[in-house]
Design a protein that fits this description.
The chain has three helices and two strands, in the order H-H-E-H-E. By secondary structure, it is mainly α. It is globular.
């Protein structure tokens, strides 16, 4: 478990809302995807099965220790 994403998840689980600065930090510092963080470009939502796609990702997090799904952002390159 990476410290950075697990700390973020813990904060969010206790009612914290992700701020714009925190989101920018995840993107600009190229935080690596892991068990708790997933970036999706949003292209997955362009088809008629978009709700199923989102449910699949959320079920994956629900079946583990939770996570953060950021839609509309490609995964940072090179990490």
């Amino acid at each position: 478990m990476t410290t950075r994403t697990s700390q973020l998840l813990e904060k969010l689980s206790s009612g914290h809302q992700l701020t714009i600065d925190e989101l920018d930090d995840l993107i600009n510092h190229k935080v690596k995807e892991d068990q708790f963080l997933e970036f999706k470009s949003g292209q997955e939502l362009e088809n008629k099965d978009a709700t199923k796609t989102i449910r699949d990702y959320m079920c994956g997090f629900a079946n583990s220790d939770g996570g953060v799904l950021i839609v509309g952002v490609d995964a940072p390159a090179g990490v």
